Amino acid sequence: MAKRRGFLAELQYQAKQAEKRRQQQAIAAQRATAAAQREHERARRAYESAQAAAMRASAANRKAAEKEAARLSVEARLAEAEEMNANLAAQYAEIDRLLTSTLDEDSHVDLAALKITSIDHPPFEPGELAVEIAAVPAPQLYYAPVWREPERPFTVGAAIGGRKRHEKNVAEARAAFEATYAEWARVDQETRATYSRNLVYRDQKERARQRKLAEAQATYRSECEARIAQAESRNAELDKLINGLAFDVESAIDEYVGIVLANSAYPEVFPVDHDHTFTLQGRELTVTVSVPEPTKFPAVKEYKYTKATSEMTTTALPVRERKGWYADVLWRVALRTLHEVFNADRAGKIHSVALTVAVETINAATGLPTSIPLVIVAAGREEFMKFDLSYVVPKATLEHLGAALSRSPFDLIPADTSRGVRAARSV
Q1: What local confidence, expressed as pLDDT, does residue 14 receive?
Q2: Cβ-contact 422, 402 below 8 angstroms
Q3: Cα(290)–Cα(334) distance, rounded to whole angstroms?
Q4: Cα-flanking dihedrals φ and ψ of residue 315, to 5°?
Q5: DSSP assignment of 319-332, as one string?
Q6: For 124, left (φ over 0), alpha (ψ -120 to 50), or beta?
Q7: Do the bridges between strand 284-291 and strand 352-362 make them parallel or antiparallel, or are there none, so unpaired?
Q8: With contact defined as beta carbons under 8 Å apart, do 260 and 6 qualify?
Q9: CA nearest 287: which of 275, 269, 299?
């Protein structure tokens, strides 16, 4: 099994995969698949429209509407098959370009360029926490009623019984005043109490808002500090790696290779993994490339919609064609890996590469995991860098390098190492 990628290699791998997905989406929007998708969608909408018309049609017209709906259904499925075949062709073309697609790319990684020189912190957005709780409006208060005694009667009036009437009026006025005053006092007290409660409630809400705002600000600062710390950690790792490469530190060279190979983005239908070890003594890099098993290799030649059975069927690639294609892809993977390693090593720190392309599978006899080598090759930097891979036949190149090749990778027959892989060769 492939070893776990280093921190920087994993970052590069994830970034490269994301970039590759973006590029694939951009290309997919321009290629013929887009036209097939539009045609499929148009046919589907036409079918749904015709089907709806058939439901609305009168008995006399229903038969014709149903016939039209059936025709459009077939058209939609045919367009769907066309779209699927366009996607299939694009996938297979990507596999066929495994080697040539890397020849125009510089696999060298500028480690200094990977440093984070600026951090774009998202703006702090407190939302409603930024809005102070509205103040409690002052209550409408009224002055207390004032006692005014009824006027006394004139002397003549008092002489003929006015005094008693006055006393009665005073008593009645006093009772009315006291009732009015009591009601005013009740309303005034209730208004003031409600105002005091609202003030307390508002102060509680405001303190809660300020507390939550402070917590949100603290969280934001922590997130910003974490981003800064992560950037500083990454930059420190890169500085350490750059210095290690400058002084030929074995682990630094090995980690740099990990970053290079993490940048090597393969098609989603043909994922690979790398395991590698660099030895300073002899300056040799040992690499194992794990490739998908033959059973996971694409096997569909074409999608076809059969009108008679209303089924979407597939035509399988002939076994002989699958075997030849699978083997050819493995030869390309081997050369691609050698090219990427030597091309990335501008300083010439790696003098040779011992490469194995293998399949991780289950041993049918023991039921245990096993690794089957299908390509084993050793290549020196000086000789390999003279090759023009744009014009080579991959298998011939590997044979020229003295590689041990499986007679039938598709059948998981191990590479024949009986002659060795470092035999003398004539150019």
Answers
A1: 53
A2: yes
A3: 11
A4: -105, 125
A5: HHHHHHHHHHHHHH
A6: beta
A7: parallel
A8: no
A9: 275
Give the sign of the dihedral formed by CA 216, CA 11, CA 296, CA 389.
Answer: positive
Token pair of 234 as six digits: 């990454």
Report H helices in 31-58.
32-56
Q: Rounded to whole angstroms, how far apart are CA atoms 326 and 309?
A: 33
Of 7, 36, 30, the C-alpha closest to 255 is 7
| CA–CA separation, 342 and 338 (whole Å) | 6
The β-bridge relationship of strands 404-405 and 369-380 is antiparallel
Question: How buried is 98 (Cβ within 10 angstroms: 0-12 exposed, 13-18 middle, 19+ buried)?
Answer: buried
Nearest to 114 by CA among 218, 192, 16, 20: 16
Q: How many helices (H) and strands (E) does the chain have?
A: 10, 7
Residue indicated by tokens 């609202």 = 198
What residues have CB less than 8 Å from 307, skipping those under 6 apart? Answer: 74
Q: What angle do CA 160, 166, 168 make, to 5 degrees?
A: 115
401, burial (CB in 10 Å: exposed 0-12, middle 13-18, buried 19+): buried
Specify which residues 174 forms β-bridges with: none
* CB atoms closer than 10 angstroms to residue 376: 24
Task: Kindly list the distances between the CA atom of residue 326 and the CA atoms of 40, 54, 133, 361, 377, in Å, as whole numbers in the listed order.
Answer: 32, 50, 70, 16, 18
In the chain, which stretches have pLDDT less than 50? 1-2, 26, 29, 423-427
Inter-CA distances, 251 with 8, 44, 60, 173, 256, Å: 13, 58, 82, 105, 9
Q: Among candidates 85, 86, 28, which has minimal Cα distance to 305?
A: 85
Which string of DSSP letters, residue by residue, matches 126-166? -GGGGSPPPPPPPP---PPP---PPPPPPHHHIIIIIHHHH
Which pLDDT score is estimated for 221? 96
Helix axes 7-30, 163-246, angle to 10 degrees: 100
Residue 156 corresponds to which tokens in the numbers above?
């003549």
Using DSSP's 3-state secondary structure scheme, residue 179 falls into helix
- One-letter amino acid for residue 163 of the chain: R
Q: Which amino acid is at 217?
A: Q
Tell me the sheet residues that pair with 303: 314
DSSP 407: S
Q: Is 68 helix (H, G, I), strand (E, B) or coil?
A: helix
**Residue 398 · residue 410 · CB < 8 Å:** no
Report if pTM > 0.85.
no
pLDDT of residue 265: 86
